[in-house]
């Protein structure tokens, strides 16, 4: 029985993919290790979203091949998004890798491993609901669809992931039930465009129906929506969010810019007027809704005037959080043929200005929570004795800050606290009021639906934040 190590880079969609690979490996008799120095087979699940992500993926592949040279590793597999786009180049550049598989080829992973004698050809061990993660196993991700139909000029995701296709609703509910049995307390729904879910199906089911099914068929306390294009955020969806307290009042919707001229060159469907009207509607239907967005600075042709329009619009819209990226030309996209005419130094300077502006906006918006009681999710025990690090409903995992408090609880517990003050603009200090409930422990009980559906493994070893 060989030991396998899986390194995952990139977005949460990649994390879900790696969990599924782990389940397949275990079913065929593999032993999983999180200590890469012990791994006899290394699988690197790559990201190709931006240049920095590609470099991180290349570094991880090279590190894996060095372990092979040292004799601790017998085989290296490189898979995923970056391989889909640059397979031929990588085969020539890194011949030490045994197998390269792009996203369209990952169904060949298990057959390749079987053919090379690295795992058994028989199903030896059913993965069930076994958990491999540590204290973060209570935060899980449910990928509801694959691919993207949008034609944004700067984005290579459709080239890596293909056209949009939704997964069956009952399969997703079953998967969520398994994640709950593993101890999930927060389930983050993810896709390239979550709001597009169901449009390619003929059953009339869309994201509101999926959310209602998850509320009805699971008991997971927090359901969070990530990555929704605004065109799909319908009144019906907002009403479902407003009506169900277990669906946290949080939306992550990418705006990308505030100047109409830049939005047009980006081939974005919205303009400033549309964004303003939609954000107003969101907040009217769902009180206390937290809205996060992303913007890109330095896109080809962006003038200083365009940048000022963006900053003015951010001040007007008062988003709770904003992720800011500098434009990075990606081969094969429409924008790649545009002149990249904004110097890198100006891109970095504009990014810093947006971050400084938004830091002040977020800090001011967070003041509305001070003195309130909120239920927070304990993520981990702090370094100092008797301290805990948690998140409030308006704070998504890894990207929106944390809540610091004193007390004793296990990760996955929920605690009622009073928000006392904002620290470092994005975080809170809070006072413990009461333990709301205890975390769900892993169980080998069967989910409510007993049909034979694919089971899901757990966490990979290294998860980045590109693509958020």
Q: What value does the average pLDDT take? A: 87
Low-confidence stretches: 129-133, 440-468
How many domains in all?
Answer: 3
Quaternary state of the chains:
single chain
Strand content: 15-25%
Sketch the topology as an H/E string, one letter per element.
EHEEHEHEHEEHEHEHEHEHHEHEHEEEEE
CATH T-level topology of the largest domain: pyruvate-formate lyase- activating enzyme
Number of strands: 18
CATH class of the largest domain: Alpha Beta
Helix content: 25-40%
Name given to the CATH homologous superfamily of the largest domain: tm_1862 like domain
Shape: globular
State the major sheet.
5 strands, parallel
Could you tell me how far the N terminus lies from the C terminus, measured between alpha carbons in angstroms? 37 Å
Can you count the helices? 12
Cα-based radius of gyration, to the nearest Å: 22 Å
The secondary-structure class comes to: alpha/beta
Largest sheet: spatial strand order: 2-1-3-4-5
């Amino acid at each position: 029985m060989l030991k396998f190590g899986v390194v995952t880079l990139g977005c949460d969609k990649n994390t879900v993919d790696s969990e599924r690979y782990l389940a397949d490996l275990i079913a065929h008799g593999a032993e999983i290790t999180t200590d890469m120095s012990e791994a006899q087979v290394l699988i690197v699940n790559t990201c190709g979203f931006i240049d920095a992500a590609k470099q991180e993926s290349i570094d991880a592949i090279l590190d894996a091949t060095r372990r092979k040279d040292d004799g601790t590793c017998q085989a290296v597999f490189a898979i995923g998004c970056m391989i889909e786009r640059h397979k031929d180049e990588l085969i020539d550049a890194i011949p030490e890798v045994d197998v390269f598989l792009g996203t369209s080829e990952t169904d060949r992973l298990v057959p390749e491993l079987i053919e090379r004698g690295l795992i058994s050809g028989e199903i030896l061990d059913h993965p069930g609901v076994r958990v491999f993660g540590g204290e973060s196993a209570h935060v899980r991700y449910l990928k509801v669809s694959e691919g993207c139909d949008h034609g944004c000029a700067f984005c290579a995701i459709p080239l890596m992931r293909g056209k949009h296709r939704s997964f069956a609703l009952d399969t997703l509910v079953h998967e969520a039930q398994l994640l709950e049995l593993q101890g999930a307390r927060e389930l983050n729904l993810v896709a390239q465009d979550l709001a597009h879910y169901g449009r390619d199906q003929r059953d009339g089911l869309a994201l509101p129906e999926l959310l209602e099914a998850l509320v009805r068929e699971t008991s997971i306390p927090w359901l969070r929506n990530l990555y929704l294009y605004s065109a799909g955020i319908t009144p019906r969806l907002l009403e479902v969010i407003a009506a169900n307290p277990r669906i946290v009042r949080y939306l992550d919707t990418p705006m990308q810019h505030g100047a109409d001229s830049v939005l047009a060159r980006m081939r974005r469907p919205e303009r400033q007027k549309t964004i303003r009207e939609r954000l107003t509607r969101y907040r009217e239907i769902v009180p206390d809704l937290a809205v996060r967005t992303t913007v890109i600075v330095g896109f080809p042709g962006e003038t200083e005037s365009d940048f000022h329009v963006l900053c003015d619009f951010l001040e007007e819209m008062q988003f709770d959080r904003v992720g800011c990226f500098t434009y990075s030309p990606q081969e094969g996209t429409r924008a790649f043929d545009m002149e990249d005419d904004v110097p890198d130094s100006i891109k970095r300077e504009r990014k810093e200005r947006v971050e400084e502006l938004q830091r002040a906006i977020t800090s001011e918006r967070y003041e509305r929570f001070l003195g309130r009681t909120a239920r927070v999710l304990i993520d981990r025990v702090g370094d100092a004795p008797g301290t805990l690090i948690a998140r409030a409903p308006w704070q998504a995992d890894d990207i929106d800050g944390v809540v610091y408090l004193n007390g004793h609880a296990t990760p996955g517990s929920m605690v009622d606290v009073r928000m006392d003050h904002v620290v470092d603009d994005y975080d809170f200090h809070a006072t413990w009021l009461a333990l709301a409930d205890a975390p769900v422990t892993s169980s080998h009980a069967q989910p409510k639906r007993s049909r034979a559906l694919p089971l899901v493994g757990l966490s990979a070893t290294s998860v980045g934040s590109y693509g958020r």
